[in-house]
Amino acid sequence: MHEDINRLTGDKLEDTDEGKRKLKAFTDEAKKKMCKFWTTPGELAAQVVLSLTSMIKTNPRIGWIKGDVMTSEKSNSEIIRLKDENEELRAKIKKMEESAPAGIEDLSQGDDLYAVHFDYVKTQRGGYEKEFEDGSQEFSWNDIFSYLSPYLLIECEETSLELLFNDFVRRNADSSFFGRVTKVYSENFQNVKVQFIALGLIQESQRKKSAGNVHKYWTLTPYGNKIMMKLKAIKKNRN
Question: How far is Cα of residue 223 from the mean position of the Cα atoms in its chain?
């Protein structure tokens, strides 16, 4: 409380008789309580700091919360119930995410075959003159996914993923095409990508990208990760 209120300038004082009366009644009541005085702003700050420090040391308290959020035995039991329910729902969601999506039974998948079309070198004369021809070969969806999926564990940019698919075709072409595949048609990659999305194996990555990065990235779904592990994990030798 200000030690000498009469020293304050007029703009800091009550300007009505009613205001002055109420202020005097308040100060008279305040002086009956725990009260310290100040005359300068520096003294006011010092008194507040000293008083709070002394109160914290001599009369510590556990803290303060709003009355409408105070816990009770009933609310604690409800919190525990909701926590258990939340964990149960999380487990169900995880199980659903790792299961095959509904409605894919009629889609080509697994060991079913998909024909990939490409250009290949049919003949070569003198090391310079080449004759190209259209070719195609069937690959299973499992073989394609087995090759691509490890690159999708975190995420893979779409152009890079298409290059990996082309590499898969060249590496796995049979003897009549091996080493001679020159161009895999882009339509094949787009079909494979859409099929893997429809089968619930891959999804667009949601990882935050740097400003200006407009490329599309793909990653495995939880179900896709499970299928990859089945295809790629090394089985125990029982011989």
Answer: 17
